[in-house]
Design a protein that fits this description.
The chain is built from 19 helices and nine strands. The chain is mostly helical. One of its GO terms (cellular component) is cytoplasm. One of its GO terms (biological process) is L-histidine catabolic process to glutamate and formate.
Length: 504
């Protein structure tokens, strides 16, 4: 299968397929005419001697400095080299691949003035699996993701570093191994490659895709915990959710009821107790609000992945080349901060359910679900770990989008910090996945005490997934390994296989 790019119709699910290596990428044939007209507009600007930012001027505060015609090509190379000053651990190959894809899609809109060769080499890098090594820190999230995208662009001109087939090498070597040659940048092309929001957006897309699946798994594990604690199902009945009609709240309530439909463990109001704790009773309200945030993030990303975010923008129909501000990452910054806050709450409520599973004062299980309490500590310290991760998330969830530091001699005096927001959101998601894995480990052990055969069909499938990674605890062992295996299984979406097999 092939994903065709035209700058306007790329979907999040298509991005996922490309990130997973399941589909190659091509520029849609209808897009090439617009791309060529855009390039012709740039050539006309040059031939007329018009002064246009980034074409024949310096950058940022030096935008009033005119560049001679003979130096226009060198200007673009100098831009890439000087701006490639990112620091920190490299972004994952998945994010790097996403950046290549999103930049290609943005250029395919036909408002950037690039040559066919420059756009094609982005496509070639995706299809051959060449992933630029891109340091994760150093973007302000306005004027585009300048530093990260410069490291991407280095590889296209045969410089920098790339990962190819799991091996780090020079950008030039990676291209040559695939039968590709470095490009020679023409007027505006360096700026067209780096003035955009593709680093924050690629991190954002990867984070959203992980968060979307994690939120669904968190619903599933919450249902297993509800059963293991003999929770009350009345709070999930539709009546109370119809009078507070958030669609996502209603969906979660209905989903949980469906998950435990044929359970022999859940109870009704007054059977054992009149009310459950908030971490059980309010699952629809909290998880529903989290899903609502995910929908907002999805809508924002759906716009951003098909947006022209470089500067200046080339409008061939009017002949205008407009220097504006579409590179400013504020929409993505807000969405990423919101995503981080929402997923930190996923971890927060999950940790409270862990406490109810291991604390003997809150349940009728052996202390800490231990096989031999006293001699063995059981799952006592897993709650400590969950609490630590939740606390760390609270610091990471401080919004980056409310911060701004002026740059370029105060010419660029307000920035979004969107890339920082996206990086923090992804860290929160990783932490949250570990907390949910801990809840899964504890809930499965609690289910063992009740009798797994009493579980509903759906939650039994979730239980079977957990047990495929972590067998029933009969004595103390190194639980870190269990948590890691469950976490990896969640990330790889292996649990869905158990659902399909166990419920069908």
């Amino acid at each position: 299968m092939t994903v065709y790019l035209d700058g306007g119709h790329l979907t999040l699910d298509q991005i996922k397929s490309v990130l997973d290596g399941k589909e190659d990428v091509k520029i849609h044939e209808d897009a090439w005419a617009k791309i060529n007209r855009s390039r012709q507009t740039i050539e006309s600007v040059i031939s007329r001697g018009d002064v246009v930012y980034g074409v024949n001027t310096g950058f940022g505060k030096m935008s009033d400095t005119l560049i001679s015609h003979k130096d226009i090509g060198q200007l673009q190379v100098n831009l890439i080299r000087s701006h490639a000053c990112g620091v920190g651990e490299p972004l994952s190959e998945r994010v790097s691949r996403g950046m290549l894809l999103l930049r290609a899609n943005a250029l395919a809109k036909g408002f950037s003035g690039v040559t066919n060769e420059t756009l094609q080499i982005l496509i070639d890098c995706i299809n051959h699996g060449i992933h630029p090594v891109i340091p994760s820190q150093g973007s302000l999230g306005a004027s585009g993701d300048l530093a990260p995208l410069s490291h991407l662009a280095l590889v296209l001109i045969g410089e920098g570093e790339a990962i190819y087939k799991g091996e780090k090498m020079s950008g030039k070597e990676a291209l040559f191994k695939c039968g590709l040659a470095p490009i020679t940048l023409q007027a505006k092309e360096g700026l067209a490659l780096i003035n955009g929001t593709q680093a924050m957006t690629a991190i954002g897309v990867v984070s959203y895709l992980e968060a979307r699946d994690l939120a669904m798994f968190a619903d599933s594990v919450a249902a297993l915990t509800l059963e293991s604690l003999r929770g009350i199902t009345d709070p999930f009945f539709p009546e109370s959710h119809q009078v507070r009609p958030y669609p996502e709240q209603q969906e979660v309530a209905s989903r949980i009821l469906g998950f435990v439909d044929d359970s022999h463990l859940t109870t009704r109001q007054g059977d054992i107790r009149v009310q459950d704790a908030y971490s059980l009773r309010c699952i629809p309200q909290v998880h529903g609000a989290i899903h609502r945030v995910l929908n907002y993030v999805k809508d924002t990303l759906a716009i951003e992945i098909n947006a022209a975010t470089d500067n200046p923008l080339v409008f061939s129909d009017s002949g205008h080349v407009i220097s504006g501000g579409n590179f400013h990452g504020q929409p993505v910054a807000f969405a990423m901060d919101f995503l981080g806050i929402a997923l930190s709450e996923t971890a927060s409520i999950a940790e409270r359910r862990v406490e109810r599973l291991v604390n003997p004062q809150l349940n009728d299980f052996p202390p800490f679900l231990s096989a031999d309490p006293g001699l063995e500590s059981g799952l006592m310290i897993t709650q400590y770990v969950a609490a630590s991760l939740v606390s760390e998330n609270k610091t990471l969830a401080h919004p980056s989008s409310v911060d701004s530091i002026p740059s370029s001699a105060n010419q660029e005096d307000h920035v979004s910090m969107g890339t920082t927001a996206a990086r923090h959101a992804h860290l929160i998601i990783q932490n949250t996945r570990r907390v949910v894995a801990i809840e899964a480990l504890c809930a499965a052990q609690a289910a063992d005490y009740r009798g797994p055969e009493k579980l509903a069909s759906y939650t039994k499938a979730i239980y079977d997934f957990i047990r495929s990674k972590a067998p029933t605890i009969t004595k103390d062992r190194i639980f870190s390994l269990d948590i890691q295996k469950i976490e990896k299984g969640i990330l790889a979406e292996e649990w869905k296989v158990y659902i399909n097999e166990g419920v069908s």
